[in-house]
Amino acid sequence: MTITVAVADDQALVRVGFCGIIAATPGFSVVGEAGNGADAVAVATRAKPDVILMDVRMPVMDGIEATRRITTSAATAGVRAIILTTFDLDEYVYGALRAGASGFLLKDTLPADLLTAIRVVAAGEALLAPSVTRRLISEFARRPASLATARGPSGASGVSGAFGSSGAADALAAPGAQPARRAADLTGALTEREREVLRLVATGLSNAEIAAGLCISPATAKTHVAHLLTKLDARDRVQLVILAYQAGLAPG
Q1: Which of 8, 54, 165, 177 could make a disulfide contact with 34, Cβ separation 3.0–4.6 Å?
Q2: Hey, which CATH number is domain 3-144, 3.30.420.40, 3.40.50.2300, 3.40.109.10, 3.10.180.10?
Q3: Could you please report the per-residue DSSP string of 76-114?
Q4: pLDDT tens, 39-69?
């Protein structure tokens, strides 16, 4: 099965580089390019790629707002976004994760790791750059609400309207001290095994690694993760990780 990918970046050389790597790899197909956020939304709507690689700082519309529009539109509900940035703690990335991004990568990522990330995200397993996974999410979960509404280069909010009003979305979008309380309320309904699995998800482990750590089958681990997504009304593993940190179920 071919994984379709679109690339959004305002630097032509960067786009060409990513598209070249993807197009030259069996099992992948480039279905669109965009030089700004508005065009990224248009490409996602028209081509409906499995994954769109999204730069953060772009003209016309920044990557945060573009990601929010893609992940909240029924027309592009199946499109998953991987955020690309030069900086591993770019302030705009926090807003992008809240906007529904399923992955985070640095632009100096090796080609093999880029392709792996696309495969993982296309399969619904969300992935962040290995070097910053726990540090980024831990920091994100502890940041004050003001960062959640920080405005990107185009002046668009990185959070407003990004989520509905229940489950993981509600906990992530809540202001002040409410996220931790709401996350705790949500995770309080989990079984002990589910809480254990959630802790492991928060450390960045894959289903196979979780299975090995708990001495269960990969299929069982996948089922537990699926139950967590349903019970916590989470879009993907990124939201599960953030909820785990907000509820105090993961190491800082």
Answers
A1: 8
A2: 3.40.50.2300
A3: GTT-EEEEEESSTT-HHHHHHHHTT--EEEETT--HHHH
A4: 999 999 999 999 999 999 899 999 999 999 9
